[in-house]
Amino acid sequence: MMFRAAFHCCIATILAQHIQATQVPLGYSHSDWRPPAVADHGLADWNMGDLPNPNATSHLVFETVNSLLQRWPNTRMRNGHSVVPGTIPKGTLLYHGTYQNELPPGPDWAATDPEHSIVFCKGELEDGCWHLTLATTRPLKVVYFDGSSAAKVEYGSMDAQDLIAWGTSQPWWVFEERQRIRDLCKWGQDYGVDAFVRMEVDFELMLCNFTSGVSMVSFSNLASVRPPRHRQSLLDPWMAQASVITVEAMYAGSWHYHFPGEIRVQLDLAGLVSFYDTQLVPSLVPIRIGQERWDHRVQNTSSEDILAVKARLAAALTRPSGLSSGIDWMTLVRVIVDRYAGRLELMQYLLSTPATDLETALDLARKTQVQLRIMLTPYILYSAVPSTEIELDWAVPVFKLCATTHTSFIQFDSPSMTPSEQLILQAIQDTTREICRVVTKMWASGVHTGLDEHLNPKELPDVGEVTNLMNAWRDDVNPLMAWLDWNVWVKCKPACGPEEMCYLPTWPMGFPSPDRGRKKRRPGDADSGSGTSTSAHEDLRTLAMKSTAATPVEGWSDMKPGPDDWIRPQPKCIRRVEPYEF
Predict the structure, then answer these.
(1) Whole-prediction pTM value?
(2) Is 471 exposed, middle or buried (0-12, 13-18, 19+ CB in 10 A)?
(3) Same-domain pairing of 351 and 402
(4) What is the pLDDT of residues 38-59, one digit of tens each?
(5) Statement to judge: residues 301 and 427 lie in one domain
(6) Is 456 within 8 Å of 448 (Cβ atoms)?
(7) Same-domain status, 373 and 409
(8) Which residues belong to the signal peptide in this entry (predicted)?
(9) Max CA-CA distance within the chain?
(10) Which of the pair, 388 or 329, is modelled with greater confidence?
(11) Which domain holds residue 71?
(12) Which of 26, 297, 356, 466 sits in a 20 to 30 Å window from 259, CA-based?
């Protein structure tokens, strides 16, 4: 008993001493007191004045991952830079439109939505057309080319697949579709690839074998999709059906505008191969200097780097299942986008709102400071208080915690990561670092000006300081959002009406038809005739697409894009019902 009493007495004494040591001295409010800062020798590399390397591509890798299998961003940035293995699950329906009751004898195209395949359902009014529906009987092994990889334009949208198929790319090869699909499927045989996934008005498959891994659900003789003869265009018989049918194909594609995109294709990001990987493809680094992202293309990749890309892709396609970290990279990327996209956009709006008087300016500044603090709330340490009236060093621990929280634990899995995963991890780290650098700098500057209601608040901040701060904030947030260039910020303003849809100029409607260059060298050995058509199926798709691109649709004259729209497409509202005009 005496021992127990002595023990409790000892514990009480220790607790009393501890409580006294941590009590807040009288005369100080809780909001004024902070525990002493702990020296962090890991902050030397966290300078809020350090800008990203202008040749760095982490933010581009981040946004391409964020955009995979989504039609909106891949229509906007047509020139794809990613090649990604994946699968299409068992039980998925695929569609193929044609003019005859015969299965394709070799590789051919299939759509993921019937509105797309109906475009190719050819036939006269008296005979109808043929529409094939397939179901996958096992998971199909696929390779996905991002960007508008099925758009037959000369600006680079087909470069990546041509480098895989032929080791080079030429602008006059864009319509060599039959040769392209044969050679891609031949290349993919060694890796068990069943199909290649591409995108134009909607997503499509270059299916290597219509009798392997798929089973016929129906092969129907449908009523012709051609309009009555009195409404047919005088320009081209095929174009008579193009108006409503093509608009509905584009509308079906709009279902996959944004995340999660085309969900019937499941990508393996642990095998992603990116031409923005500066270690894998260093030859493109000097070529991109001074270019806007619209102008990036992979055509001029060196022969050594092409071999490295193909080797990396081959390794990804042959990697045993389970040999990766198991991290859900897409979810992590989406968490970061969801966390910051809307708030950055709101902040940009507040900073661009005209301030007609001092009261309005102060109100906008305080609202902006609130948004900055909200973004940083999980990272504002109790010990983070201004140490001087000018320096922002006191906020560096906030910057570091913000920038590392999403990835610090993941780094422990680095030994189990594939090269693709390490690339994505670096992209996330660099992107979050820049977001947090700018946001922390803006927030800390607002604290110094007296706008923060929790730290150093001033009832009436200096008007001149607030004005200068607002200008500095604009100079911070606008370049940050331009650097990130997230597709979620690209939208029709104002929003489209009930009979409209938001639209980016989309191949093939109104685009010029490239010179097919029949007299120029074709892919493969020109003397061997490897580019010669050999089947009744050969040029049906090519001719239809060339016709669409070359011929304006009656009533669609206003929809024809200009050169800037081909390369730098901007959102606009178009009608979903006749008359099809802007």
Answers:
(1) 0.86
(2) exposed
(3) yes
(4) 334 467 789 999 999 999 999 9
(5) no
(6) yes
(7) yes
(8) 1-16
(9) 110
(10) 329
(11) 65-318
(12) 297
**Domain annotation covers residue 453:** yes
Helix axis angle for 58-67 and 419-449, nearest 10°, is: 110
Query: Residue 17 is which amino acid?
Result: Q
Which of 435, 454, 489 finishes a domain? 489
Q: Would residue 565 count as lying in a domain?
A: no
361 and 473 both lie in a single domain: yes
- Quickly tell me which residue has 């006749």 as its tokens: 578
Question: In sequence order, what E strands does 504-552 have?
Answer: none
Strand partners, 136: 214
Cα torsion for 392, 397, 399, 401, to the nearest 10°?
-170
CB atoms within 10 A of CB 521: 13
Decide if 9 is inside a domain. no
Q: Rounded to whole angstroms, what are the CA distances from 21 to 14, 15, 25, 322?
A: 11, 10, 10, 53
Q: For the chain, what is the domain count?
A: 2
Q: Can you tell me the distance from the alpha carbon of 216 to that of 95, in angstroms, rounded to the nearest whole number?
A: 10
DSSP 252: H
Q: Are residues 297 and 344 in the same domain?
A: no
Say whether both 216 and 69 belong to one domain.
yes
Shared domain for 369 and 456, answered yes or no, is: yes
Q: CB–CB of 86/197 below 8 Å? A: yes
d(CA 225, CA 97): 11
CB 270 within 8 A of CB 324: yes
Please name which of 243, 300, 312 lies closest in space to residue 273, comparing C-alpha atoms. 312
d(CA 550, CA 335): 43
DSSP state for residue 120 in the 8-state scheme:
G
> Alpha helix (H) ranges present in 255-357?
285-288, 303-318, 329-352
Instruction: Report helix, strand or coil for 215.
Output: strand
Average pLDDT, integer, range 444-454? 94
Rounded-to-integer distance, Cα 47 and Cα 258, Å: 35
What average pLDDT does the segment 209-215 reach?
Answer: 97
The whole-angstrom separation of Cα 284 and Cα 293 is 13
> Can you point out the beta strands (E) in 99-128?
108-111
Residues 309 and 387 in one domain: no
Q: Per this entry, what is the length of the chain?
A: 582
- Establish if 160 belongs to a structural domain: yes
Say if residue 492 is exposed, middle or buried (CB neighbours under 10 Å; 0-12, 13-18, 19+). Answer: middle
| Residue 204, SS3 per DSSP | strand
Cβ(98)–Cβ(121) below 8 Å: yes
pLDDT tens digit sequence for 5-32? 443 444 344 333 333 333 332 232 333 3
Q: What is the pLDDT of residues 505-542, one digit of tens each?
A: 988 876 766 655 545 666 764 333 333 333 434 444 45
| Secondary structure in 3-state letters for 27-61 | CCCCCCCCCCCCCCCCCCCCCCCCCCCCCCCHHHH
